[in-house]
Amino acid sequence: MTEDEKRERALKARKFYRAEQEAGFADASPVHTPQTSHPAYRLAFRDTDFLLREELRPVRFQLELLKPEMLLEEAGVGSTLVMYGSARIPPPEAVETALAGAKDLPEDERKIVESLAAKAKYYREAYDLARLVSEKSIIEDGQRQFVVCSGGGPSIMEAANKGASDAGAESIGLNIVLPHEQAPNPYVTPYLSFQFHYFALRKMHFLIRARAVAVFPGGFGTLDEFLELLTLIQTGKMKPIPVLLFGKDFWSRVINFDALCEEGTVSRKDLDLFRWCETAEEAWGHISAFYGINAPDRPEF
Predict the structure, then answer these.
(1) What beta strand segments (E) does 97-189 contain?
(2) pTM score, two decimals?
(3) Structure confidence by residue, pLDDT tens digits, 191-210
(4) d(CA 291, CA 241)
(5) Residue 90 phi/psi, 5° resolution?
(6) How far apart (Å, rounded) are the C-alpha atoms in residues 208 and 66?
(7) CA separation for the pair 133, 160 (Å, rounded)
(8) From the CB of residue 8, how many other CB atoms can be counted at a distance below 10 Å?
(9) Strand spans (E) along 112-185
(10) How far apart are CA 120 and CA 115, in angstroms?
């Protein structure tokens, strides 16, 4: 069957050509005139300059929402374990070098290095949790459950993806374009590695499939993600899920939860929206208890 015959058959079957076929026709056109060479003549969906115009922001929102959603659905990802945390905490094996390099720094800078080094244990716990959950290989309704999902970057995010990788499992990375250099860590599964322009759409994708969220010590980004998650559950915009807060000493200094209750701006029961954790085993215990995993009549997800 010739290519023309294939096209004719496809046309009869579909009534119209697929977009990629039309794009191929446009590429194959031998006509080169001032009109066909002008940007105005480009197919709109292939015209990057047009898609990047200010007026096309709503279309870019839709594309950024749709692309990861479609690819995750095609990958059979039913639910995720989302892991938030700092991009600055060193892995345990880098602590000795970091401390040695900090000896001659000014005192305030040295203390910062020492403080971050002391949090290296959370890199290990993030790794252990991701590996533990990934080794469970829970499948339900033909879809993979509790697939590890991180922000795709270094430190705690890297620990999450590395733990899944070492368990022989795939994992997701949701990176964000930043003014300074930023790239996915090497443990993210390549076809589940996404890049976002809009923080809002990235945060939405973190939670669309989330069945549990582990929050480790972090900065503004982690705070933003954690507090938005609590707000969504508190206001009833999102169904309750296990929210696992690692590092009670850290978070109690950063956020005075008791003061919020004493001031009346949150209710004491709102503090039940999350669970304190220090180890991966504690976190999995909360998750498995919440969903009745390993129970004889556990609920559907």
Answers:
(1) 139-140, 143-144, 147-150, 172-176
(2) 0.89
(3) 999 999 999 999 999 999 99
(4) 9
(5) -75, 155
(6) 12
(7) 10
(8) 12
(9) 139-140, 143-144, 147-150, 172-176
(10) 9
- Rounded Cα–Cα distance for residues 272 and 294 (Å): 24
**Distance separating alpha carbons of residues 66 and 71, to the nearest angstrom:** 9
Q: Which two tokens stand for residue 120?
A: 């290296």
Q: Which helix (H) or strand (E) holds 275?
A: strand 275-277
Cα separation, 287 vs 146, whole angstroms: 10
* DSSP-based helix, strand, coil % in the chain, nearest 5: 55, 10, 35
Query: For 161-185, what is each residue's pLDDT tens digit?
Result: 999 999 999 999 999 999 886 789 9
Confidence of residue 298 (pLDDT cuts 50, 70, 90): very low
Tell me the residue ranges of DSSP E strands in 38-146. 80-84, 139-140, 143-144
Give residue-wise pLDDT tens across range 20-76.
988 999 889 888 999 899 999 999 999 999 999 999 999 999 999 999 999 999 999
Mean pLDDT, all residues of the chain: 93
Distance from C-alpha of 99 to C-alpha of 119, rounded to nearest angstrom: 13
The answer to whether 222 touches 85, Cβ cutoff 8 Å, is yes
**C-alpha 165 chain-centroid distance:** 16
CA-to-CA distance for 159 and 31, rounded, in angstroms?
Answer: 54
Residue 89 DSSP one-character state: P
One-letter amino acid of 95:
V
Q: Are 161 and 128 in contact (CB under 8 A)?
A: no
Helix (H) or strand (E) holding 246: strand 243-246
First CA to last CA distance, the chain = 48
pLDDT tier at 13 (50, 70, 90 boundaries)? low
pLDDT tens digits along 41-54 = 999 999 999 999 99
Which of 1, 296, 67 lies closest to 204, judged by CA?
A: 67
